[in-house]
Ubiquitin-conjugating enzyme E2 C (Littorina saxatilis), 177 residues
Amino acid sequence: MASQQRGNSLPVRQKSSSASTSSKDSHTVTKRLQHELRTLMMSANPGVSAFPEGDNLFKWVGTIEGAEGTVYEGLQYKLLLEFPSGYPYQAVSVKFSTPCYHPNVDNHGNICLDILKEKWSALYDVRTVLLSIQSLLGEPNNDSPLNSHAAELWENQEAYKKYLLQKYEQDVRSKQS
C-alpha cells in the first residue's frame, strides 16, 4: 500500500514541478518583455515604437515609419508582434497588419527576414527587430521575394514609388477615413 501511495504521489510532484517551471519561465519572459518595453520607450530611435496590446504582454502592436531617403519615407505601418513562451530563445512572430507592398512581404503581411527565422538570436530585442524591418523597407532582399511583382518593379525606383503610393492610398488611407 505504501508503494501504491508513493507511485500515486510521484506523478503529482512531477506535474507541480512542471507547472512551477512553466510559471517561472513565464515570469522570466514577462520580466524580459517589461524590460524591453522600458528600453524601447526610452530609446531615441525615430520611426519605431511598440506597446502591448491591452493587458497582454505577449501581444504587441508596433509601428514603423519609412526611413528618410527611401521610397517609403512618410508612410507608416502597423505590425503585430506575438511572443512565444520560449522567448527570447524562440523568435518573436511579426506580421504587417497594415497592407505593405514590398518584395519581402506577402499579401498576408508575412515578412521574409532571416533574423525572424533561422538567424534569430536571444540577443535580439523588439527594438532590433523593428529597426531591422524598417531597414528592410529601403533595402529589400530581392533574392528571396515573397512578392515577385514588387521585386521586379524595385529596379525602377520612380515606377516603384508611384505604384507604392497608389497602393498605400488605396489600401491604407482610404480605410482610415
